[in-house]
Amino acid sequence: MNLLDLEEIVFNSRELKISEEQLQKVDASFEFLKEFSKDKVIYGINTGFGPMAQYRVEDEKLLELQYNIIRSHSTGAGQPLSKESVKAAMISRLCTFLNGKSGVHSSVVKLLAEFINRDIIPFIPQHGSVGASGDLVQLSHLALALIGEGEVFYKGKLVKSIEAMQAEGLQPLKMYIREGLAITNGTAVMTGIGSVNLIKTKKLFNKVLLASVLMNEIASSYDDFMTEELNKLKNHEGQDEVARLMREISKDSLQLLNREKVLYNKHNEEIFQHKVQPYYSLRCIPQILGPILETINNAEKVLVEEVNSADDNPIVDNETQMVYHGGNFHGDYVSFEMDKLKIAVTKMTMLVERQLNYLFHDRINGILPPFVNLGVLGLNYGLQASQFTATSTTAECQTLSNPMYVHSIPNNNDNQDIVSMGTNSALIARRVIDNSYQVMAVHCMALAQAVDYLKIEDKLSAKTREFYQEIRNIVPVFVEDTPKYKEIEKLIEYLSK
What we know:
Blueprint: H1 3-12, H2 20-36, H3 62-72, E1 77-80, H4 83-98, H5 106-117, E2 121-122, E3 125-127, H6 136-146, E4 151-154, E5 157-160, H7 161-168, H8 179-184, H9 188-218, H10 228-231, H11 237-250, H12 259-262, H13 280-283, H14 285-307, E6 315-317, E7 322-324, H15 332-360, H16 362-365, H17 386-400, H18 422-454, H19 462-474, H20 485-496
Antiparallel strand pairs: 1-3, 2-4, 4-5, 6-7
Helix pairs in contact: 1-4, 3-6, 4-5, 4-9, 9-11, 9-14, 9-15, 9-18, 11-14, 14-15, 15-17, 15-18, 17-18, 18-19, 18-20
């Protein structure tokens, strides 16, 4: 499962298919565990969970044990996770089982696939995971829905899961050996949220790149800051790639200036009216967005690896004929990447906010009215107040960028004495990303107003002109003061597509 596959299933409702070969791997693991577990002590099969592992559970209570972990750990709180995050989490859990290392009955993967394909979305609260035995609490809510005792979002309503299953002709999941523990024990929720975060970040990055080229067109910047010759000397792949993308976007622009033609000849003036070098928020884009691009790419590598990993405990390996106890459920990889991603997105948001300030500050840009106000100065205010929204939201991102990865509170009778906080990290990253979309929406309005004031639409590159026109399809040029909150909402929706 790669990120594109996941995106297609989550956002475009592409059917998830399970091959016969994959089902055979699942069945083989189950059959091996059924035989291997006889007369052996195996965690979570005939013992209690967590610090209760020291207590043996009698044979006649083993199935009850699997139901108990689901019911007892369904203790989440807060708002429900988004539909997309839950769907991605189900895909991640399914992929773990398809590795054939969990010892679960094939009915688990079949029912998960049915939930995904029929758009039955379990109610999973945001809060409850410390990211150590994975996402125990949130995944318990998933399992609760699968056994027909939880709640799901179905056809636009929150209903009992058993009602949705009955409507679709599905039967609640039954326990066999360790299905309860296997479903609840792993990193699927943080990975699901993280995957959605990454998809949204990649879309936002592409728009910020377009906006950054458009910014330089508005300012009539010299184009040598994005040349191959300059950027390859920094020895960073991300910077080089960003510069290449900017050259591709701007290749047919009539607004950018060539330094050699304009400045590399005799000049007699003592003061140059046009900036010899633009501000950093325009000139240093390859250097700023380069590490952000590399962070995005690395996060994708890690998250795809996590989606396709066996991340529960114990690991049931019929190939080596052994059951291994360990910590594959620990969410450090996801937690660390989500912290890095939110820092990268915050820096990208800061870049956007500074570009916005450039457009709004007439004494800095020297070519636009204050706040790109196309009306009567003093009587009309243009986008003046929208800067408050962008600035305050950027400031919140900066505060939220403090790392979650290094927060650890021992719990669970100190059995979980060092934890990842992976789900918290992913949730905070999601908030930072959502904030960034809001700042970018304000920026889009300002960019379009600037283009109209300067009357340069026909001089823009084909790609930035298309970008401008898409913005204008949502927010027509305006002179009079009108409320802008609905336009911001519509622009966020556009940027997310």
